[in-house]
Write a structure and sequence with these properties.
heterodimer, A: Aconitase, domain 3, Aconitase, domain 3, 5-stranded parallel β-sheet, B: alpha/beta, Aconitase, domain 4, 4-stranded parallel β-sheet, 8 helices
């Protein structure tokens, strides 16, 4: 019987079974950032341990960097302290750091692929749950806690339970105006925010075969929002074409050898999955969340659920809590809700193709009065290519603020925050209470094109109508 | 291997109602601007406990009857969201030794176990009974017995569950895996040598 990609990568990186039954797994590539790594370096110092394979850890700074005034010292001394601590830890331990002056800094999950560090058939870990993003390349990529960041630094391994694999097929043609973001919001809506517990999600089918690497990354990125610690797409020609010529990828004949190896990691045709879910592409609508977890999504033309529509007591309590926080009425339409802020960016949707796609449609249009709209490119590389293509000008002319690279308003650890109960149309990944920096702030997750439509109309809108798809 | 063996946890408990209690709720991101975990206990469930103007909300976590609690009881999918270890760190530093919930998000569960914060699951009906009992008898000691996989409070006794590996590692004190990982350096080198992408 054949094997899944997950099993092949797992087997190739297994060191041994530990006394508690977990597997000691080699982590080929380790990515770190300023929020979850300083304590790990502190733990190493306390125990007198060294970084075992410093060349396999790569660092960048993303969560706390301001996106409007990037000159140090930052106005927030805590943020300044964190960037300095990372700088020192990297320099003391010979770790490559894509610092703000390198032209390569950005959200860690955008930088890794962009630099060609993320490769098929590898294991990747980072102290960040959206590490699942890297699975788009056929890597097995996990979000880990800080004690495990310590473990990787000290041993290049972590203790982990093997996951089961659920294959999720999306076949057919996506409707116009339906994007990768809608696909993953739809999947989480169907399978639930904890449906993926214990699973790695393998995404496949016609839709994924046709998706670009950036679209695959958007889907894999939010696997964790469905409870799946890892999500991946089997590597194919699209993957190899993306990687060719990138800085940290092999070049010349070594690249061809790598491709030959990478191909072998793809799941075998006769492999066995623990579960298979099939979704018809045409059932997926432009999707918007109405509540306080990413599973609370509906099609743009659907109504917000009523409390009594919840099947169990616990469902009804969840709906009630969400409606209260959002100040929405059950049964009302999501379309037409007036927004205050539009955020285009994040490790989910802050890549070049996201900005290109939106720029194509907003040319000549204006952001609605009373809406604050910001574009935060996912990395300095994204920002620089976008500027060279004149996208910054298109956004600025339309009334968006064009910012520097970082996580920004996805989790508001920098100065970009909602104020009071502002309603934000956001291309990010979490709509938890308080996520965007205000306790009473409200987040609506949606695709970049839907964020743009909401920004221009001033209310949640069907992008297909606004832009004439 | 640590000499800290966790076979039995007891203490009074507090109920934090709701499913999908996410890591942003457990520790809001703005309190993660720090380079150590010290002091995080103060910010546990900050926005659940305080409203925007800094006044205390009406919540069990602010109720003086539960102020001595060292066990949290909550709903399904507890700890969903971020991989931030700040979440279980803040729980531990605020003085909690265990969480009883309907279910746990995976990364949170692993991070907690690594720190020796015991996470056990009970079914929804039992959780309902436990929370009601705590409400009427806030001082009563609740106990989690990992040997027998039982949660007991007053004269009530419920079955609980936990991943076997986690249970074992808590009971034999091996829950912080670093020591064991450090022992296998030569095996690591062997696997590194077989893979083509890692230079030694």
């Amino acid at each position: 019987m054949g094997k899944t990609l997950f099993e092949k990568v797992w087997d190739a990186h297994s060191i041994k079974e530990l006394s508690n039954g977990q597997t000691q797994l080699l982590i080929g590539t380790h990515l770190i950032h300023e929020v979850t790594s300083p304590q790990a370096f502190g733990m190493l110092r306390e125990r007198g341990l060294n970084v075992r394979f410093p060349q396999r850890t790569f660092a960048t700074v993303d969560h706390i960097v301001p996106t409007n005034e990037m000159v140090e010292p930052y106005s927030d001394p805590l943020a300044q302290g964190m960037i300095e601590e990372l700088r020192k830890n990297c320099s003391d331990n010979d770790i490559t750091f894509f610092d703000t002056n390198t032209g390569k800094q950005g959200v860690v999950h955008i930088v890794g692929p962009e630099q060609g560090i993320t490769q098929p058939g590898t294991t990747i870990a980072c102290g960040d749950s959206h590490t699942s993003t890297h699975g788009a390349f056929g890597a097995i990529a996990f979000g880990i806690g800080t004690s495990q960041v310590r473990d990787v630094l000290a041993t290049q391994t972590i203790a982990l339970n093997k996951l089961n694999v659920r294959r999720i097929n999306v076949n057919g043609e996506l409707l116009p105006g339906v994007y990768a973001k809608d696909v993953i919001l739809h999947i989480i809506r169907i399978l639930g925010t904890n449906g993926g517990t214990g699973f790695a999600y393998e995404y496949g089918g016609d839709v994924f075969d046709r998706f670009s690497m950036e679209e695959r990354m958007t889907v894999c990125n939010m696997s964790i929002e469905g409870g799946a610690r890892a999500g991946y797409v089997n590597p194919d020609q699209v993957t190899f074409d993306y990687l060719k010529g990138r800085k940290y990828c092999p070049s010349g004949s070594a690249f061809d050898d790598a491709v030959a190896r990478w191909k072998n990691f793809a799941s075998d045709e006769d492999c066995k999955y623990s579960d298979v879910v099939s979704i018809n592409a045409k059932d997926i609508q432009p999707t918007v969340t109405w509540g306080i977890n990413p599973g609370q999504g509906i099609g743009i033309n659907e109504s917000i659920p009523t409390i009594i529509s919840g099947e169990t007591q616990s469902d009804r309590a969840s709906i009630e809590e969400a409606l209260n926080h959002m100040s929405f009425e059950g049964g009302s339409s999501i379309k037409g809700k007036k927004i205050d802020v539009a955020f285009l960016g994040s490790c989910t949707n802050g890549r070049l193709s996201d900005l290109q796609e939106v720029a194509k449609y907003i040319k000549g249009m204006k952001v609605a009065k009373n809406v604050k709209a910001i574009v935060v490119p996912g990395s300095q590389v994204v920002a620089s290519i976008a500027s060279a293509q004149g996208l910054d000008k298109i956004f600025i002319d339309a009334g968006f603020e064009w910012r520097g690279a970082g996580c920004s308003m996805c989790l508001a650890m920098n100065p970009d925050k909602l104020v009071g109960n502002q309603l934000c149309a956001s291309s990010s990944n979490r709509n938890f209470k308080g996520r965007q920096g205000s306790i009473t702030g409200r987040t609506l997750l949606m695709s970049p094109i839907m964020v743009a439509a909401a920004a221009i109309i001033g209310e949640v809108s069907d992008a297909r109508e606004v832009f004439g798809f | 291997m640590s000499d800290n063996l966790i076979k039995f946890v007891s203490g009074s408990a507090v109920y934090v109602p709701g499913d999908d209690i996410d890591t942003d709720r457990i520790i809001p991101a703005r309190f993660m601007k720090c380079v150590t975990f010290d002091g995080l206990g103060e910010y546990l469930f900050y926005d659940v406990r305080y409203s925007e103007d800094g006044t205390q909300r009406v919540h069990n976590l602010n109720d003086v009857r539960f102020s001595k609690a060292s066990i949290l009881v909550s709903g399904n999918n507890f700890g969903c969201g971020s991989s931030r270890e700040h979440a279980p760190q803040s729980i531990q530093k605020a003085g909690y030794k265990a969480v009883i919930a309907g279910s746990f998000a995976e990364i949170f569960f692993g991070n907690s176990t690594n720190l020796g914060v015991v996470c056990v699951c009970v079914n929804n009906n039992d959780r309902e009974q436990i929370s009601q009992y705590i409400e009427s008898n806030p001082e009563t000691q609740l106990s989690i017995n990992l040997q027998e996989l039982k949660v007991e409070i007053g004269n009530l006794s419920f079955a609980c569950s936990i991943k076997e590996g986690a249970r074992k590692s808590l009971m034999d004190g091996s829950f912080d895996t670093l020591n064991e990982l450090l022992q296998n350096e030569s095996e690591v080198d062997l696997v590194v040598g077989k893979l083509n992408y890692i230079e030694k």
